[in-house]
Every structure is written in C-alpha cells, then in structure tokens.
TrEMBL record, chains A, B:
Its cofactor is pyridoxal 5'-phosphate. GO terms for biological process: amino acid metabolic process; carboxylic acid metabolic process. This is Tyrosine decarboxylase 1-like. Belongs to the group II decarboxylase family. SUPFAM superfamilies: PLP-dependent transferases (SSF53383). It comes from the Eukaryota. It comes from Panicum miliaceum (Proso millet).
C-alpha cells in the first residue's frame, strides 16, 4: 500500500490474523455482519443527516469547482486499504466524502446550476433509490421478482398517461414500456429493433444498406446509438435545419433525402421525428421519438398541442430523471410492438427458471426489452414520486421552471445588447450578446460570447451555464431545472450576465480605442 | 382515475386549486419543497428503519413468492393519482411497499436464495447508493463533476489491484477502467471497440465478415452484445466443450474454427477466453475476458493461479455487484488501450463545456467509455466498500461462501444417489440426482431432476435454487452468495434436497411397481 494520506491511517488496527469486524471489536466470522440491521440503522441515520445537510447548504458551494486535473487522484492512496482503517471506518469515510469529494463536484442540485440539462432531484426519488439499493433484487425476469416487474408495467402506463402518450404505446393499449437507465440505451434498443425488423424484410446481410435520418438538432446520443448498432457512419443523414425556420425539420427535405437514398439502392431505417410520420410511412421507416428533456413538459395539458403527430410512432423515450423529479437514472421507453423489441433483444436459456404460473402466459421478462440482463428495481422510485407528488405536483414543478425561464427570456429581450437565439423551449433559454458593429461578423460574435460564458462561470458563487453551437452560431444556454432554483436565483443570474457583458464590452471598447490611437 | 383501491384514497384533499405541499399543510409554491431538508430527514429515517427491519426479517419471507401473473397489477389503479393521496402520502406509500410489494418479490438477499447468481448486498454499498442518489450529480465528463471522475479512476485501479489484474489494464499501467451498470454493457463496449478497430484495418464496410468466438459455456450476454453490435447471427462461433474435459475450451478447437473462417474469407474479431491468447494472436483477434461472477474470487491470493494467461488480454470485465458487496448495479470494465474505446464510443459536441483546466490534458470523459452519456456516480459506493471492509473483508466474504459451497458439495458427494455434475466453481455447486437404472437414460434423469427442483423450490420456507442445461444434462445449481447465508442455511438446504429426492424416488418406485403389477 502506498503512503497513507488524509483519512487513511490504519489507527493501529492489526494487519494480520482474523478479519476484524468493522465496528464492534468482537470477532464475528459470519458474512451476515455485512448486513447487520443495527449497523445499518446507525450508519443510515448518518447518511440521511449527511444528505439533508447537503440539501440545506448546497447553494453555498460554487456550482462548478475551481480544481485542476488530478486534484483528487493526487490526494488518494494508490491501493485500497487491506483492512478497515479504524473502528469507525464508515464515519471517517463520510467525513472524506464531505471534505474531499463534495468540494470537487459540480453541484447539479445547486440552485444556480443552469448548465447542460436539468437533473431535478426530489427527496422521494432519492429515498426510492435508497430503498431499491437496500432491497437489492434483480428483476431480470418476471419470476426473478414478480412484484418488481408488475410494478414497472403499472408505472410506465401511469407515466405514459400522465404525459398524454397514445394508448398504442402502453400496455393498456397493446404496446408496452420499460424503465431503462438513459436515453442512449433507449434509442439503442429502438434502433436495434428497427434494424432487425427491417433486415427481416430485406435480408439479414444488408446491414450496410440501412440508413438512419434525424435532424441536425438531434441529440448526439442518436448518432452514438446508431453507430453502436452497426449502422455505417456514412449512412447517417442529418437533415440540415435553419435559423429562419426555428431549426425545425422540413418534411420536404427529409423526403428528398430519403428518396435520394432509395434511388441509390439504400433502405430507410429509423427516423426520430414523429411529426414526419407520413414521409416515413412512404418508405416503411421505423419512427422513434426521443424527448429526453422536453417531453416532461407534456404532463401539462397546456403543452399538449406539441404532441400532434406522435400518435403513430413506433417507439418513444423520455428521461424521467431530467425534469420529473425521478433522480438519475430513469429513462422510460415505450414501444408499439413489444414483440419486435423482444425479437431483437431477447435471450432464452434453460437456466432461467420460468415460474409455473408464468408458463404459457404472456409474461414480460424485462431482460428481453433492453441491452442489459441485470437491472435495478427502478419502478419503485417512480411509484413513490407519482404517489407522493401526484401528477399535479409534477405539473407545478415544470410550470414553475417554465415561468422562471420565461422571465429570464423577457429580461434578455428587454436588453438591446442581447438577443434570444432560438425559440425558448420550455425552460431552456438560448441567448447571446450581439457583437458591436465595429467588431465585425459572426466569428467575432462567437468569440465574444465564448468569453462572456467564461466570465459568467468564473464568478464561483454565481450561476453556471453552458453553451451550444447551432448553425455556426455560438450561444449561451440557461437551462432552468434545478429543484432548488427560485426566481431570485434566476434574477441574480441575469444580473451576473449583464455585469460581465458590460465589463467585457468596456474592455473591448478600450482595446479598439487603443488600437485606433 | 380508476376506482381508488388500497392505499389510494384521497382523504378529502382538495382536487382543484393550488398545488398542496406534500406534508405541512402550508402553501409553499416553490419547487424547493421537493428537496426540503427537514422532510428528507424525517422520511429518510423512516426508510432507514424500513430497510433495517427488512434485513432483520428477510429470512422469514419465502425466498420466492407464491403469486400468479398479474397479482399486483390487478391491485393497483390504472392511473397515477392527480394529487398526493393524503397528508402522509409517503408513509402510506411505504406501508404499501411493505404490504403489497415485499410479499411479491423474490428475496435475493434472503439467506436461502441459492438461485441464478449472487447479488451480495452490504449496508455500506446500499448507503453508498443512497448517497449517490441524494447528491445526484451526472459525471458524464470530467468537467461535469471532476471529483466523481477522479474517484472512479482511483477505485478502478484499487479494484484492479485487489483482483490481481495485470497493470496494463489499469491507469497506473497505461490502460484504464470505468464503472458501468452490467456485464452486457461492458461486453458490448468491448465488442464495439474490437469491431471498429478491426474494421479500421480491413475496411469499414466489412462488418458482415467479422466473427466472434466463445465457448459454449459463455454467458449469453456475450451473444446478445454481439448481436446488438451488428455481428451477424451466423458469425458467432460457440466452440463446443465436453464434460470429460470439464467443459474447458480447447485451444486446438478454437484454432481449427478460426482457421476455417479465415479459409472462408472471414475475419476474427473477439475472443472472450484469455488463456487462448496465443491462438487469438495468430489471427489478430481482440481478447475480452468477462468474469461476471468468478473473478471476484481473485481477491483471494489462493485463487490467483487461475489468472494465468490473462496478462495480455485487451479488455476485462467483472460485476462487483455479484460477489463484492457492491449492490446492483456495478460492473467494472478495464481496457489496455483506452483510445480504442474512445474512438468507438466517443462523441464530441460544442456544447460540452471543456474546463479550461482540462484543455490539452489527457482528460478522461467517461461518456466516451460507455454506451450511455448520462451516468451515475457509482465510484462512491465502491470507495466506501473498499474503505470500510478493506480488501481483507472482501476476501473473508468470498472465502466463507466458498467454504459453505465446498461443504454442500461434499454432502452431495457423500450421498450415492447424487452426483456433482461439473467441477465446483468457487461457490457454485452443480449437481443432480442419478436416475435409477430402471427408469432409463438421460432423458428420464433430466425429467427427474426437473421435478426435484420444482419440489425443492415449492417448499416456500426452504431454499430456492435454479437449474442449468449443459451438454444435454439438466442439473440443479446451488449458488451460495447471499450475504446473510450461514452454514446452517446450507445444511438445511441440503436436508430439503435429500428429503424431496427421497420422496420423489419413493413415488417413482411405487409407480414402477404399479406398472409392473
């Protein structure tokens, strides 16, 4: 073992002989000491207090830590300890989580986290995860934990209805859903099912002829999933979208792209854009809609007009861990024809015990609905969240964020130095500082906004945002999505953006003046 | 909403107007009520007590529930509640978890769970999961939570060393590792990296020419992963193994299979058998070793002779959630050449903010090491487990199970009616009842053992085992792996097997006698 450092001193514990119990000092040879109820209760209270304290003070941490690459690796020993380092190893480890780890995290739950995408936490989902980890069953088949499979079937229908999905995607309508880890996983499952169903028609050796289509605004998870599934990189078609059309995908352009491929002897496979079903139908394509983020908003009836056209999709996925208070990870995938998913992802082996009760029935073995065999009991937290907050609770959560984002957007619009660069999507505002004329074109504007973001994020105690490059335009992204974010944090964030912009513009004016001299 | 049923009564809570806070009765319009520290503390203690009580009495549940398909779905409403059902919705939901869900689960943590594979829980890992869910960061890049990425880099090296892996697979030796969800995911990542690295040599359009090889004893996760990655089903080669060679893979047979494919113009891609490196090398194959289960045993030096030949593998995976007390899910994947993994699975987009500190350095962005982008902070629980139990603690855990399995095996061997059907692998005993001569051949023996397993598992309060079919031989599997399993549970299990066998044989004798009359 390397030189002990902070928190890793062995405290004189013997290095040889019998394995010492972790906490009591008495010899306890049984493995059952690792699941001792009394120890769990004691340590569990410590953990609950730890997390409660974290929620109370998470706003005091800089959202993004000011640390250098390697800062933590340098502080930790090169080897795991051979024995628990002290009689209170758990307490010591918790202190290290607090003192070494927390200051080096990006605090996604901080009220000033406006970067990337929301990862809305809730107490109920966090505790649901704790329950799942504590109970630790592995519901890979119905028989391997019947209640876990059945609860999952129930909550995906609950969730689907709450989101106003078409019934054809739910168990109650002949389809069905499952809870996976992430969007990438869900998209990969859909692509593999689409691929295999297409190959069954055209010949199993023609994988090289399959083409996938998406808009150039599609999340790169789609590209990644298609690549993993063996779709050739030359066979992705990212249909260009334009700012003057608000970056929406044009059916005419999709049709043209598909026709060109058909003329070239290729075959359409997957299209993530539900609104373009008619075009897809003409080419027999599988339509998958991934709405990792925005879909959460559809718990609110006022956003339901956005659903038009998705009634006929083949599959649909959305991350409940983004905006529906379900904590990471929890992505729901629904499919119209579960048998196609099972045909693509199913496995059958003698050693998987089929329960007598399940034989001959239409049993759902979720191992055949996903990439993985081993899976967690994710349905538990979703059940708890829906029961404890109700669909109205989720609506309130989403609406409050949308309201705050709208307020941020109106502030941007009211300041002539700035512009909103894309239609606000729910609680995401994309904006930028207009480049003063004397500084020149897009390139200078991009550079200006890159510096602006740097300065906004450098504030430490201030907001933390991210950026996007769309159609050659660099923009700042303000994603309102943290559970703890309140109106005042959004107002403060805007104030920081304005201040930094003013100082930046002043500096540049001075530089220009200096050059002019 | 459907008719309310058990636990779903709305208790007179108003159905319209402002969203009510979950517990306090006061109007609290902020989303922050979903992360209220006081509510978390109160509910958290409830959950800790719930889990502690579960550990205390999990042995009282039948391991496998006696329920029919649909038993739980029928009891739950068709829609999620619109509002929290009462002022103590959380308490009510917890009671339903206890009364509706627990009795319908297969209790993987029960001391009599000998089925499938181990899912060893520990208090520390369960609480590590709770911490991860509570903190809820998303370390998809280094910058997105630096301490999470660095801790992962540290613990995969700790774990690799504890398992006596070659340094070439660890960060300290130029390789590196990551923590994924499951073996399937890890194998898929390795196959995609192998596939792409091979296609770069032979031409990116030749995916149809790639062949994967494994022994017919390989877990079907391998087949599934290869299929997802687009390897044609005709291009899996399962090399037959034989009982008289203890189901080991023969290098000569592998070589012959590879040579036949080369002669047919195909290309070798992936071989999961490390010991056959020399054969693989001759064909430029990527060698992946998956040791979802057995590898855990290599924390013990006395099992290290089994490592011979794996020094030169390209990638290696093992499930820490199986036998190393890490709770589901936690699969470690190590690779010799991380750049090949990143080339296959990497994504690069403008909107991912690179931290200034990371620019130009060899930063690890774990989103490029796996199928998924969003990921959980799994390193935390592994860190806690290794610190609180030490490597010696894990050794003690594994050794106790191996000892119990050896004891079970010797009981089987001592009873002439039974035979051990495959060499005991660590804590897994495969065995069967010999078929009495008058009953005839293998088919009758298989049927006899099928009925034996049924009767063993039907006992309710008794052990729960699973089965395997290998080389046409049906066998019972007794996998000792639950943290709470003690010697007495194993002894009881054997007693049940003997009793049921005796009664079964008696019945059959009677039937034969009846027929003979």
């Amino acid at each position: 073992m390397a030189t002990p450092c902070h928190g890793y001193v062995n405290n004189g514990a013997p290095q040889n002989g019998v394995v010492l119990p972790v906490e009591t000092g008495a010899v306890q040879p049984q493995n059952s000491r690792f699941l001792d109820p009394a120890a769990f209760r004691r340590q569990g209270y410590q953990v609950i207090n730890f997390i409660a304290d974290y929620y109370a003070r998470v706003g005091d941490y800089p959202v993004h830590p000011n640390v250098n690459l390697g800062f933590l690796r340098r502080q930790l020993p090169a080897d795991a300890p051979s024995r628990p380092e002290s009689s209170d190893a758990f307490g010591a480890a918790l202190r290290d989580v607090r003192d070494l780890t927390l200051p080096g995290l990006t605090h996604w739950q901080g009220p000033r986290h406006f970067a990337h995408f929301p990862a809305s936490s809730s107490t109920v989902a966090a505790l649901g995860e704790a329950l799942t980890a504590g109970i630790n069953v592995v519901p890979f088949t119905w028989a391997a934990s019947p209640a876990a499979t059945e609860l999952e079937m129930v909550v995906v229908d609950w969730l689907g209805k709450a989101l106003h999905l078409p019934e054809s995607l739910m168990f109650c309508g002949g389809g069905g859903g499952t809870l996976l880890g992430t969007s990438c996983e869900a998209i990969l499952c859909a692509i593999v099912a689409a691929r295999d169903s297409k190959l069954a028609d055209i010949g199993s050796r023609r994988i090289g002829d399959l083409v996938v289509y998406c808009s150039d605004q599609t999340h790169f998870a789609f590209r990644k999933a298609a690549h993993i599934a063996g779709i050739h990189r030359d066979n992705y078609r990212e249909i260009a979208t334009y700012r003057d059309n608000m970056f929406a995908l044009s059916p005419a352009e999709l049709h043209a792209a598909m026709q060109a491929d058909v003329d070239a002897g290729l075959t359409t496979a997957v299209d993530p854009i539900g609104e373009l079903r008619a075009v897809a139908d003409a080419h027999g394509a599988w339509v998958h809609v991934d709405a990792a983020y925005a879909r959460s908003a559809l718990v609110c009836p006022e956003f339901c007009h956005l659903i038009a056209g998705t009634e006929a999709v083949d599959s649909f996925s959305m991350n409940a861990h983004r905006w529906l208070l379900a904590n990471t990870d929890c992505c729901a995938l629904w499919v119209r024809t579960p048998s196609l998913l099972v045909a693509a992802l199913g496995t059958e082996q003698e050693y998987i015990l089929k329960d007598a009760a399940a034989e001959g029935h239409d049993v759902v073995d979720y191992k055949d609905w996903s990439v993985t065999l081993t899976r967690r009991f994710r349905a538990l937290k979703v059940w708890l969240v829906l029961r404890c907050y109700g669909v109205e609770g989720l609506r309130g959560h989403v609406r409050a964020h949308v309201r705050m984002a709208a307020s941020f957007e109106s502030k941007v619009q009211a300041d002539a130095r700035f512009e909103v660069t894309a239609t606000r999507q729910f609680a995401l505002v994309c904006f930028r500082l207009r480049s003063p004329e004397k500084l020149g074109g897009e390139k200078a504007a991009n550079e200006l906004n890159r510096r602006l973001l740097e300065e906004v994020n450098a504030a430490g105690s201030g907001p933390y945002m991210s950026s996007a490059m769309v159609g050659g335009i660099y923009m700042l992204r303000c994603a309102v999505g943290s559970t703890l974010t309140e109106e005042r944090h959004v107002n403060e964030a805007w104030k920081v953006v304005q201040d930094r912009a003013a100082s930046l513009l002043r500096k540049m004016e001075n530089t220009c003046r200096g050059v002019a001299k």
